[in-house]
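User: As part of a screening pipeline, I want to sanity-check one entry by hand. Below is the sequence and the SMILES for magnesium ion. Please return the complex as structure tokens so I can compare it with the automated output.
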Amino acid sequence: MSANATGSSSSLDYRQQSPAVAERFKKLKDRPVVLEVRDLTRVFPTAKGGEVTALRGLNFHVHRRELMCILGPSGCGKSTLIRLLAGLDEPSSGEVRLDGKPAVGPSPDRGMVFQGYTLFPWLTVKRNVMFGLRMGGMESDEASREALQWLDLVGLAKFKDAYPHQLSGGMKQRVAIARALANNPRILLMDEPFGALDAQTRAQMQTHLLEIWRNVDVTILFITHDLDEAIYLADRILVLKAHPGEVQELIEVSVPRPRHPAQSNSPEFLATKRRLEELIHPRAEPTSQPMEKLPIIRLTHAGDDVE
Amino acid sequence: MPRSRWFAIGKEPPPRVRLVLTFLSFLLPVALWALISYVPWIWHPLIRVNDPGTVAWFTPGLLVERAVFAEENAKVVATPDARVATGERANPVFLPPPHAVARALWTAFATKPVLKGDTWLHESLALSIRTIFWGFVISSLLGVPLGILCGAYPPFARLVEPAIDFVRYMPAPAFGALAVAVLGIFSAPKIAIIVVGTFFQQVLVIANTVRRHDTALIEAAQTLGARRRQLLLHVIVPGCLVELYNDQRILLGWAWTYLIVAEVVGVSSGITFFINQQAKYRNFDNVYAAIILIGIIGLVTDQGLAFLGRRIFPWQTRQPSRLRAFLALLGRQGGSNA
Ligand SMILES: Nc1ncnc2c1ncn2[C@@H]1O[C@H](COP(=O)(O)OP(=O)(O)O)[C@@H](O)[C@H]1O
Ligand SMILES: [Mg+2]
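Assistant: Here is the complex for your manual check:
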């Protein structure tokens, strides 16, 4: 995306919302809170006997049917946060509440899609999707019927008898989404789910996810380090900063819905992106050190220049 | 195949080359054996007497050292109306030539038991296979579940593994006398030796395999609602199944190595008894035939299990077994010739 936006859009404030968008946000905030995070802190012991604060004093909440993105540079604690939310790790202090009740330990009401494809390689696609239902005690026939419906939703009914190793990366993640959704989770947690996919597949998957979200009663918390992905998907973007991981800003994305890829040149999109860039890659602040020039000796023949 | 390909690390050669190499793997040792057996000036430290001449103690067919043969002939030449002994170079009786062993692979089955209580070869083999089978089954029934528990639950491993590690270093044959005292002299102590030889290694090997399970899959299963026992039965065990199966194949090979020791415990029996008897009668071709048979049984079992494994675990994506690759290649060539 180029920075040479038109004169009028470059002056647009990313917080400025059209009446329709403002109305949407008002409705969104009227919906009940599904997930509430209170003073969440996670401190890891280091190998040398010290401590590293991965997350400090996080507070935010997610409303029902909201799609919230969490954005931050690599190493700012995004994975740590989502693992705490999923109950796969315990906070050093603070708490996570789901529908007002403390959420401790992993549970099918907080579904998760991981970046690495975590499909069970020994199960067929259909049986992968049935897994949660069967664990919950559902009869095989009924689970099978439900699994097929979910596979239909993600467009993979044809591959129900294939094994994961026979699928492409994008298809695996679609199965993983279907598998998580089959449990009817209150919230779907996604940790950079499309991070390992090529650009084209990733764009398809984003559109696909929005489609699913529109049609399924589910709240989504989506982690990414890709600014465009966050703006394209999110209602609100929670921007984290690193060392320690803290909330930097909660941005309401002013790009109207329904979203489509062409909006990436719209003034709202560009304004939001500029703001995110300021937050994530601050321009040479006086306090931060300038990037040192690497002390590289010239190892090519004189005159053999590439630039 | 270009020369650089031979030393490309981790690169499999094409199927045809693989097949040739597999054949060579068996052919080269046999070729060496044939060389030593059939080329008279290679080794052949003895002389087989054809015509004893006037040497008093020589008889036709007798094997004597070359030096002794020359010495005796020299002595004979000195005496009047002498006739020197003739003979040809030969190998010792314990190195029969390949064709004799090949013939024995067939005739050994037809070798009548000499004494009452001696057994036919097929009876000996059946008894050995039965001993291995029960030893391995009993060991697995105990060792596999215990290994899985140790691999899945660290406190359990802390409780069990140190003691097992300790016993593992005691050679199984050391328990022979004990086994006979407790279990009598027939099959039971032999099976017990195989169990002792296999079980302790088995627990540790299986536990290590299970310990390498993918934690990401466990976490995924937890977020899908799987609980403790479900995690063990529906994630950890199926996740390790292919590796466990291959471990079992290797362990079965180890069980075979304990067979010879096990079979001399109490009343000697099975293939070991056959081998010892035939060695006593100096039928060394039968001895080699029996040893080769053990190898063939082991190889065929292992490759058969590998072949079976690919049927049972359709999700694995590894190299096909040698047997299967071989059959596939034969099929392809048959097809292309037709
Ligand atoms: N299990 C752990 N033990 C120690 N430190 C950890 C552990 N997990 C994460 N961290 C630290 O916490 C910080 C945040 O990591 P992570 O949540 O993986 O970041 P992100 O997902 O945003 O890239 C990093 O500095 C990392 O070193
Ligand atoms: Mg991460």
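Points to compare against the pipeline: Residues A 78-79, 192 surround magnesium ion (ligand 2) (CB under 6 Å). The first strand of chain B starts at residue 46 and ends at 51.
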